[in-house]
Design goal:
single chain; two-stranded antiparallel sheet; globular; alpha/beta; binds zinc ion; Rossmann fold; 7 helices; about 300 residues
Length: about 300
């Protein structure tokens, strides 16, 4: 069975809201996961600061396409209450070009439990320009944005070629990007597995010297996180499809999905009932995290 989830059109005139288009309601009666998606992802694009309008729109289209072609479910929201309600149902949450203070303290606590209990986190570009006053989030995302020079070409070096988000890349490649500088150099954070670095000798405005990470991974409790600082120059789905970024982000998402439980527990968490009434109904089947009270 396949849920068809369409991203909400992005534009300055309208605030995007959750869009859940359900293709097959009868699937709710199915307990088995054998024919359903491997895993489910919620994409969160709330912004309280700068909003990357074109990039968010492109990213939602791209992630819907990747979900359809790579066997996972995806839904989209910019509402923190929808996010909190979905945490019991999804395997990972993508912060897609988020910015500013976007979660209330109660929602932050919900999200911490989700991560520590084994949930996945993916941050894209301005996810590091988000929630500066929430220490857990700072640890999770790995660094905070500081500033950036003008968009320009630079050479990126692959540091860890074994990761699903980098294994398709040439050892070094040139990319046009808004190169983030961070408040502290992520290279000095021992909790991070650095995946990509930008070579500061190939552009102007870098502030981190010999090692300037632009993508990394980490664990937090039982949860896993992946972040890429790239993404500013991907303003259409064609940009994603025609570049390394498609597999980069797909691999990042796949890398944070919780492993199936021993003993044959279903791999994907059923997303179905949440789609019909997020926060009011729960999918049947095993919930891996203890805070999930409904089966
Ligand atoms: Zn940007």
């Amino acid at each position: 069975m396949r849920w068809v989830i369409s991203p909400t059109p992005e534009g300055p005139a309208g605030r995007a809201r959750t869009t859940w288009l359900v293709a097959v309601a009868a699937a709710l009666l199915c307990a088995a996961h054998s024919a359903s998606a491997d895993f489910s992802v919620l994409v969160f694009d709330k912004t309280a600061g700068f909003r990357h309008f074109a990039q968010i729109s492109a990213g939602k289209t791209a992630l819907a396409r990747l979900a359809a072609t790579h066997g996972f479910d995806v839904a989209f929201t910019d509402d923190e209450n929808d996010l909190a309600a979905a945490l019991a149902e999804v395997d990972a949450v993508v912060f897609l070009f988020t910015s500013g203070d976007i979660l209330s303290p109660a929602r932050e606590a919900d999200f911490e439990q989700f991560i520590l209990g084994g949930g996945g986190f993916v941050g894209i570009h301005s996810a590091t320009d988000t929630e500066y006053d929430w220490p857990f989030y700072g640890e999770l995302v790995g660094a905070y944005f500081s500033n950036h020079p003008a968009i320009q070409d630079a050479t990126v070096h692959v540091v860890d070629a074994a990761h699903p988000s980098t294994s398709h890349l040439a050892p070094s490649f040139v990319h046009n990007e808004e190169w983030y500088n961070f408040a502290t150099n992520p290279a000095r954070n021992p909790g991070l597995d650095i995946l990509l670095e930008v070579d500061e000798s190939t552009y102007t405005g870098g502030e981190h010297g010999a090692s300037h990470p632009v993508a990394w991974a980490r664990t937090m409790g039982a949860g896993r996180a992946w972040y890429t600082a790239l993404g500013h120059t991907f303003t259409s789905d064609a940009d994603w499809q025609g570049s390394f970024f498609d597999q980069h982000v797909l691999g990042g998402i796949q890398s944070v999905i919780p492993a199936p439980e021993p003993g044959g527990a279903s791999l994907g968490r059923s997303f179905a009932l949440a789609i019909l009434g997020i926060g009011r109904a729960r999918a049947r089947g095993a919930n891996r995290r203890p805070r999930s009270s409904n089966g």
